[in-house]
Structures are given as C-alpha cells and as structure tokens.
Design brief:
5 helices
Length: about 120
C-alpha cells in the first residue's frame, strides 16, 4: 500500500488532484483504521489511465461518467466502449490538426531561415 504522497510522486500528479478525483467519485482509495488514504497498485494504474485521459482533454464529466459506469459492472461495457471510442476520435482529430500545423510551421520556419541567412550573407 502507498500513501497519497507516494502515489502523487509515482503518477506525477499533485496530491490535491488525487483528492479532487476522490471528491468527484472518479477514484475510491482505501482507508486505514485512522482514516488515512491507502493506494494499491490497481488504483495507481487507474490513476495513470485517468492522467492520460486528462492529458488528451477528456472532460471531467466524461471521466466521472466512465468511472461510474465501471463501478456499475460488466453490463455497462458497451457504454464505456462508446465513451472511449468517441474520445479516441477526438484525439485522432487533434493529431491531424497538430500534424497540419506542424507542416505549416515547417514551411514558415524554412522561409524565415532562408530570409535570415540571405541577410547575413550581404
């Protein structure tokens, strides 16, 4: 079992964020006899998954919905699948947008380099 500070270091998120996820019902850490949060490897893995979803701009509302569906059990698998597929489509769109922007920047940077190099040779 791990403390909240150990988990925060392992997952590279702030303890405040972990407490927020708990408050929102996205995670449910265990508690020891003194009420101190305890985290196992499964919960750390879940937090890493949540972190990736947040890094890709999944809204908290969707995260909460996914977590609730997961807690309800296997009969919600189809809904969870749809939620993840919809999010993946958004990510793929983001990737396409980033690639197009990167290509545009390549052209701009090349033009500036050519301009700057031509001025320095005069």
């Amino acid at each position: 079992m791990y403390s909240i500070s150990e988990v925060a270091a392992k997952v590279n998120i702030k303890p405040h964020t972990i407490r927020f996820y708990e408050k929102e019902g996205i995670i449910e850490p265990l508690r020891d006899e003194n009420g101190v949060r305890e985290f196992d490897d499964a919960l750390i893995k879940w937090l890493m998954f949540i972190k990736k979803l947040r890094e890709t701009q999944m809204p908290i509302t969707d995260l909460k919905k996914y977590a609730l569906l997961f807690k309800e059990g296997d009969h919600t698998a189809r809904e969870r699948l749809m939620l993840l597929e919809n999010h993946q489509k958004k990510i793929q769109h983001q990737i396409e947008t980033l690639k197009a922007t990167d290509e545009m920047l390549d052209g701009k940077i090349a033009a500036y380099k050519k301009h700057v190099l031509n001025k320095s040779h005069r």
